[in-house]
Design goal:
Blueprint: H1 12-23, E1 26-29, H2 36-47, E2 57-62, H3 65-78, E3 83-86, H4 97-105, E4 109-113, H5 114-122, E5 131-137, H6 147-155, E6 166-171, H7 181-192, E7 195-197, H8 203-209, E8 214-220, H9 235-239, H10 244-249, H11 254-268, H12 270-304, H13 318-329, H14 331-334, E9 335-337, E10 346-347, H15 357-369, E11 376-379, H16 383-392, E12 405-408, H17 424-435, E13 440-443, E14 458-461, H18 468-475, E15 484-490, H19 494-516, H20 536-541, E16 545-546, E17 553-554, H21 556-568, E18 582-584, E19 590-592, E20 605-607, H22 614-631, E21 665-672, E22 681-687, E23 690-697, E24 705-707, E25 711-714, E26 718-719, H23 725-748, E27 759-761, H24 771-779, E28 799-802, E29 809-816, H25 837-845, E30 860-865, E31 895-897, E32 901-904, H26 908-936, H27 944-950, H28 963-984, H29 990-1000, H30 1003-1013, H31 1035-1038, E33 1045-1052, H32 1054-1082, H33 1093-1096, H34 1108-1117, H35 1124-1130, H36 1134-1140, H37 1146-1167, H38 1173-1183, H39 1186-1196, H40 1208-1223, H41 1226-1232, H42 1240-1256, H43 1261-1271, H44 1273-1276, H45 1287-1297, E34 1303-1312, E35 1315-1324, ...
Parallel strand pairs: 1-6, 1-7, 2-4, 2-5, 3-4, 5-6, 8-15, 11-13, 11-14, 12-13, 14-15
Antiparallel strand pairs: 9-10, 16-17, 18-19, 19-20, 21-33, 22-23, 22-25, 22-26, 23-27, 24-25, 28-29, 28-32, 29-30, 30-31, 34-35, 35-36
Length: 1420
């Protein structure tokens, strides 16, 4: 970019070009610095006001990342439009369509690199028809296969001209080929659908504000053949003694170094060449040292723990140390002070005799044209030339103190054609040059165009000019009136001189061509798209494929990048090289895709048609491949690699309800059977097989049984019949009053006035409602004082209350006719010590507001306390512990005066019925909801108790909840989903399947499906309160003729997801995988239907004989395979496929992972029926982890002997770890598996073998599970719910219990021998207490650091002083903490110095802050 005008007021020549841009598509061909960007700004402002631009965006395209920021900032600062800047550095996700829509909807101008916009068009994220203006900065790049040209080809696919956006191109040099300027110009115009225009009417003004510099040719002598003054032998000579095999072993690209060395020597001389070689060599030496020390550190840490390291410690070859010594010896020659491989070292003075004549001439030019405030640019071709020149020019004594130099190089592009980020140093260089902190910039072609630099006083072309664009663009940097543009040409280099003279002579002629080309054109002619750079034959043969449903476009231009993107997403481990397509052939290309893409061999190889060039042949073959892969659904309809399910659809294409607005807490009307509607049903209640009462409600209840200390059950209901409305009204009122009084008497101890939604009534011997008995109780709501009707038959049956303790029920045990209130208490009784019972009662019952009423006559009665009914919970299973008898005998007996008591007309049967009513009514509610859920959701016959458990939330406080089933159901859900996805998508690799599975078992998906089926209406969440009777209803509800009842409940949204998984778990326990499939299908999960797997997925009926290679494995497994090819796949590491083809084990590993999860959890669930959800999850995690599975792979199955691998380093790592795994035990692995870090391939192959067994058995889960349990016996036998936590979890729990919330475990650098390493440290309140610890892996480092921290904190004699400064709430550490006593302080001091000793031994960092804090604590 050139400098915009000093004022935003356009000059007349800019208005002239702007007017032409308004009239049609144009390319503004104006010199650098003439203000083309201001013209684009005028055009943006104008077009954004047009009615036709509504709903459309403006696209500003640039060829370089750095220009995105520059141009975007300029537009944003000078327009009110909403501007967004996009480039590859932002890591833009092309799959996030919602985010892209938001970007386009919320912005008016999008400034971006061309490749991003081409990707947007390719994947139909936006269309050109929705663009009002496209601006192409440096549009001369619109040729061949540049993204500019790809964008314009899509532009031409819009048939209606009116629907196309306006085009505005900007360039200082529209012509590349000076030999055919007209043809070159015509090609650019055709490609851009625009006319190249210049300034006609205001040339004088243009020349005034955009002057041309003085051009000078400066010849320099040829390079000298030898430099006798330079010390010999040179660094290069010393290094020549080492053979190519040494450099290859050290992974130093010697051939490339050699080429750049000779180029530097030829251009700059022996010192600069040695300088370059020394810096490159130093970088490689540092890299080798770094790698060796890393490996040594890993080996040391592994040795400390008694483990083998995955990394083989190999010393560099002996020649390396000689090379390093040579490097060190040459530091004194090249630098006064020189840290290893530093390009910022302090240089020694540089004699010009050590430089080429070309450098000497350059120095003369700089001295001649240097002025105060000087700024200049030297253009070179190669990056190392720029770097070396920037370093050595200040070292030349003649230039010392005059120049501040900086180097600027290009960026390159990645596999998608997107430019890589600008190095941070380069960005600083650009800013420094703009500010004037650097006055001489040595740059490659990156500085020729686009970048906003100030006008330079001096521009020197150090290397030969290649084309017109380079000539015009670099000269444009010298645009001051006194600027000098110098072209350096070697003496007698006639070819270079001729080329320059041709460019200089041709430029005015070329300018005349495009300035006069359309002077009289009315703009009505149509240009031809086809240029001559790709070739008309190639263009004519090109195809184009448009996905009809989305508009995504496949072309020859984007086909290769689409394949590259697909291959880059294939999962791989550190031992597998990057997956790339292979191209074979020349003018007829064949593409071979990586075999890790799960396709048939026919669909991995594509041979394209004959083409006129090799590159075009590759594009044609890639086009065929992408088109076929789209048909196979490897690419989706947006031509993006299928990576997962859509947010709006599940894996089967069914829509997913949007639940993003569902509140965290749900207010739900759940099904509830309790109502007293117009029709009433009576259900007999039986205790110990005897009818004791009738349960009356407006709903016909299901018969239930419940364990309440005794077996209790109900019979099916029968309708109640009344003689008349008056009779019904009277009896309803009687049942209501009886029920309310009985609930108060036996359950709540609190009266209430609301109608109950159920009646529990006495029965006659014929099981009819005993209304007479109810009348008797209701007639005496405060009891009866007449004891004449009471006899021995009422003992232990009759409820009585003491007037002085009204509301506290007792059970009559005996009438003591030999004792009266005036009797002396018996020795040893609770009343002993008083003169009489009367005195005791008066003293005991008299209060501030109550005077005890104690008769002096009449007998005493012996009573038992009769507690209220319990909280309504019940045991789900008959083997659960019985509930204790509610009748309790007081110590030493309990006596009260008979005549101060009243008795209640409630039979023993009714009393017992009311005592179990809370549990019974709760059980009925649970069964009612479970039955309705089964019927209305279409669930299979899941056992009642399991379904009740699945629908019960922990907040119900029932003694059981769905958490255990949820843990099991999660594993069932994962396996059922995995099997379906594995078979439905045979052409998707492990990474794609993993994303699909994650989406199909996510909480969001489960919540959506739960809401779809209305699961929230069947959930039990209410907590029973003994003092509040919940089965109540309003008068309106009691008269509602509908027996269907709902109750308002509130519980967390997350509960629905748990219930979904718990129901799946309940179905699995009832009927295995077949019933789980039926249940999942009813709930809308991605299970692939309810057809059992063995029927859905068949296999050969007869087992096949495997090769000798696998016989031992079959014996160890106790399983015979039917499909031997599955075994081959299961043991094939991806590294083997990259060289010899075949299918890797990753898909089977994906399947086996889910199988192991379920088998282990099912085993734990059944073995430990009392274990909580957390007590199941922890041992499961210990069993299904990399160390445990690697142990089984080696010790149990000997898989390390048959694993097919094609990586030496992986083979060595496995061989070194196998002996350790063979010598350890399952118990050791389970308890301390965190300290093991075996190669992941060992655990992967174990999972893949288990996955192969599941497939080979025709997905017979029971058979596969039996094999898995057999193979995992050593690990499973060591599992228990009380298994110890890993050190990280244990540390976090200990810190939390101590009341501190400021624990963090972080990556930290550790310095040893001047080298930094990544380690892990434990910090409390930001202070390091342990670490950084460096181990074989970050994971192991974290565990070691946590273990040491926990040991330190638990030791009462070594408590860390940082804990004394914890300012969290509840900071006092209980139990294991040290009290702040004198002895405690001494202990802290000892702990501190002990920690220093430990730190010294382990090279752990001790911060100055730690010293300060320790001193402060000791001073206290």
């Amino acid at each position: 970019m050139e400098d915009p005008a000093e004022s935003l007021l356009p000059r007349r020549y800019q208005e002239e070009v702007f007017a032409k841009a308004q009239a049609g598509n144009i390319i503004a061909a104006l010199n650098t610095g003439s203000g083309k960007t201001l013209i684009s700004l005028l055009l943006i402002r104008w077009i954004s006001t047009l009615e036709a631009s509504k709903g459309k965006v403006i696209i500003f395209l640039v060829p370089k990342v750095v220009l995105v920021e520059q141009q975007g900032n300029f537009i944003a600062q000078n327009t009110p439009l909403r501007v967004i800047k996009l480039h590859g550095v932002l890591d833009i996700d092309l799959t996030d369509r919602a985010q892209w829509k938001k970007r386009f909807d919320n912005h008016d101008v999008l400034v971006m690199t061309a490749q991003i916009f081409l990707n947007i068009l390719t994947h139909s994220l936006w269309s050109i028809s929705r663009v009002s203006l496209m601006i192409f900065d440096e549009c001369h790049h619109a040729r061949k296969n540049h993204p500019y040209n790809g964008i314009m080809r899509e532009y031409f696919q819009i048939p209606t001209t009116a629907c196309r956006p306006k085009i505005f191109g900007m360039t200082a040099s529209p012509i590349w080929n000076t030999k055919d300027p007209i043809g070159s110009l015509a090609t650019l115009e055709a490609n851009m659908d625009s006319k190249v225009v210049g300034v006609h009417a205001h040339l004088d003004e243009l020349h005034k504000h955009s002057p041309k510099p003085v051009e000078i040719i400066k010849e320099y002598p040829s390079p000298e053949k030898s430099y006798t003054n330079f010390p010999s032998p040179m660094l290069w000579d010393y290094l020549q003694v080492f053979g190519k095999h040494i450099w290859d072993e050290l992974e130093i690209p010697w051939s490339a170094l050699e080429t750049r060395y000779y180029s530097t020597f030829h251009n700059l001389g022996p010192y600069a060449a040695s300088f370059f070689l020394h810096a490159e060599l130093g970088w490689h030496i540092l890299r080798i040292h770094d790698s060796y020390l890393d490996n040594a550190q890993s080996v040391d840490r592994a040795a400390e723990m008694g483990l083998p390291s995955q990394v083989q410690l190999k010393s560099p070859p002996a020649d390396f140390w000689q090379i390093q010594q040579i490097y060190v010896d040459f530091e004194e020659l090249l630098f006064m002070e020189a840290p290893l491989a530093s390009m910022q070292a302090v240089p020694c003075p540089l004699s010009l005799t050590w430089c080429t004549p070309k450098i000497r001439t350059l120095v003369e030019l700089l001295l001649r044209y240097y002025r105060p405030g000087f700024q200049g640019i030297i253009f070179v071709e190669q990056r190392q030339i720029a770097t070396c020149l920037a370093q050595i020019l200040p070292m030349i004594p003649e230039l010392e103190g005059l120049l501040r130099c900086g180097a600027l190089m290009g960026q390159g592009v990645n596999i998608d054609g997107i430019e890589k980020p600008t190095p941070a140093g380069h960005k600083n260089t650009v800013e420094s040059f703009r500010r004037g902190d650097i006055d001489l910039l040595i740059a490659t072609s990156v500085a020729e165009e686009g970048l906003d630099f100030p006008a330079c006083d001096l521009v020197i072309r150090f290397d030969p000019l290649a084309h017109m664009v380079g000539y015009v663009q670099s000269r444009g940097r010298a645009r001051n009136k006194t600027s000098i543009f110098i072209v350096m040409i070697q003496k007698d280099d006639n070819a270079h001189l001729t080329r320059y003279q041709t460019l200089k002579t041709a430029e005015p002629e070329v300018n005349k061509i495009y300035q006069s080309r359309h002077a009289s054109d009315d703009g009505s002619s149509e240009d031809n798209l086809e240029g001559d750079e790709i070739g008309p034959d190639n263009l004519a043969e090109r195809e184009r494929y448009v996905v009809e449903s989305t508009g995504a476009v496949l072309t020859y231009d984007n086909s290769i990048s689409l394949l590259n993107r697909l291959c880059s997403l294939i999962p791989r481990d550190p031992f597998t090289p990057q997956h790339v397509p292979k191209y074979l052939g020349d003018f007829q290309a064949t593409i071979v895709l990586p075999s890790n893409i799960p396709l048939s061999s026919d669909d991995l190889t594509f041979t394209g048609p004959l083409r006129h060039s090799k590159k075009e042949a590759r594009r044609a073959a890639a086009f065929m491949a992408v088109k076929r892969l789209h048909e196979l659904e490897v690419f989706d309809d947006f031509l993006l690699p299928v990576s997962g399910s859509k947010k709006t659809e599940d894996a089967d294409g069914c829509p997913i309800t949007d639940v993003s607005q569902v509140p965290v807490m749900l207010d739900v009307l759940v099904h509830d059977p309790w109502t007293t509607g117009r029709s009433l049903w009576i259900h007999s209640v039986h205790i110990n097989n005897q009818p004791v009462a009738g349960l009356v409600t407006g709903t016909r209840l299901p018969p239930v049984d419940v364990v309440c200390g005794k077996p209790v059950y109900t019979r099916p209901g029968r309708p109640m019949v009344f003689e008349s409305e008056e009779d019904e009204s009277h009896k309803r009122r009687l049942m209501l009053e009886f029920t309310r009084l009985s609930i108060w008497l036996r359950i709540t101890a609190r009266p209430f006035a609301s109608p109950t939604s159920l009646f529990l009534v006495p029965l006659t011997a014929s099981c009819e409602v005993d209304f007479d008995a109810m009348e008797l109780l209701v007639a005496g709501p405060r009891g009866y004082p007449d004891w004449s009707v009471i006899n021995e038959d009422d003992f232990d049956n009759l409820i009585i209350m003491n007037t002085n303790q009204f509301g506290r029920p007792y059970l009559l045990h005996n009438i003591c006719n030999d004792l009266t209130p005036l009797s002396k208490p018996l020795p040893g009784s609770r009343e002993d010590g008083h003169q009489s019972y009367y005195e005791y009662f008066i003293q005991k019952w008299t209060g501030r507001k109550w005077t005890a009423r104690v008769p002096t006559g009449g007998p005493l009665v012996e009573v038992h306390m009769l507690p209220r009914s319990y909280n309504g919970s019940y045991a789900l299973h008959s083997e659960a512990a019985s509930i204790a008898d509610v009748v309790q005998t007081a110590p030493n007996g309990l006596v009260v005066p008979r005549d101060s008591c009243q008795w209640f007309a409630m039979s023993s049967d009714v009393r017992k019925a009311y005592e179990i009513l809370p549990a019974l009514s709760r059980r009925i509610s649970d069964i009612y909801r479970a039955h309705r859920a089964r019927f209305e959701l279409g669930l299979p016959p899941i056992r009642d108790n399991l379904l009740v458990e699945a629908l019960t939330l922990p907040c119900a406080d029932m003694g059981f909840s769905n958490q255990r089933l949820e843990t099991l159901g999660d594993a069932v859900l994962k396996l059922c989903t995995t099997v379906h996805l594995y078979n439905k998508f045979p052409h998707r690799h492990e990474g794609q399947l993993s994303i699909l599975r994650s989406s199909s078992i996510s909480n969001y998906f489960l919540l959506a499906r739960a809401k779809d089926v209305g699961l929230e209406m069947y959930v039990t969440s209410e907590h029973y309160n003994i003092h509040t009777w919940r089965y109540l209803e309003s008068v309106d509800q009691s008269l509602n003729p509908s027996a269907d009842r709902h109750a308002l409940r509130r519980y967390p949204r997350r509960s629905l997801q748990d219930c979904m998984e718990a129901i799946i778990g309940a179905s699995f326990l009832t009927g295995g995988i077949p019933m789980a499939l039926r249940t999942g299908t009813s709930l809308g999960l991605s299970f692939g239907g309810s057809i059992p797997w063995p029927i859905r997925y068949s296999r050969p009926p007869v087992a096949c004989t495997v090769t000798q290679y696998f016989l031992d494995l079959e014996d160890r497994l106790g399983y015979t395979f039917h499909r031997p090819e599955l075994l081959v796949e299961a043991v094939t590491h991806p590294s083997m496929c990259s060289t010899s083809g075949g299918t890797p084990y990753q898909r089977l590993e994906f399947l086996g992972d889910s199988l192991l999860d379920l088998v282990v959890l099912d085993y734990l669930y059944k073995k430990f029926p009392d274990a909580t959800s957390h007590q199941l999850s922890l041992p499961k995690a210990k069993a299904v982890c990399s160390p445990s599975l690697a142990f089984l792979a080696v010790r149990r199955l000997n898989l390390h002997r048959i694993l097919l691998v094609n990586r030496t380093d992986l083979t060595e790592a496995i061989e070194s770890y196998a002996p350790l795994l063979q010598s350890t035990t399952g118990k050791e692995i389970v308890e301390r598996g965190w300290k093991y870090d075996p190669p992941k391939a060992l655990s992967d192959v174990f999972e893949s073998i288990m996955g192969a067994i599941l497939v080979d058995s025709a997905y017979n889960y029971d058979k596969a599970a039996a094999v898995v349990e057999h193979a995992m016996e050593d690990i499973l036998s060591a599992l228990s719910p009380s298994i110890a936590w890993d050190p990280v979890s244990a540390l976090r729990r200990w810190i939390a219990q101590a009341g501190c919330s400021k624990l963090s475990i972080e990556k930290k650098k550790r310095l040893r021998n001047g080298i930094e390493r990544d380690g892990v440290a434990v910090l409390i309140h930001g202070m390091i207490i342990v670490g950084p610890i460096v181990a074989a892996s970050q994971s192991v480092s974290k565990f070691i650091a946590s273990e040491r921290a926990l040991t330190l904190l638990r030791d009462s004699d070594r408590a860390h002083p940082l804990l004394q400064l914890c300012d969290c709430q509840k900071t006092r550490i209980k139990g294991e903490a040290i009290a702040p006593t004198k002895n405690g302080i001494v202990g802290l001091q000892a702990a501190y110095f002990t920690e220093l000793e430990d730190t010294e031994d382990d090279s752990e960092v001790v911060t100055p802050e730690l010293d300060f804090i320790a001193d402060a604590v000791i001073r206290q």
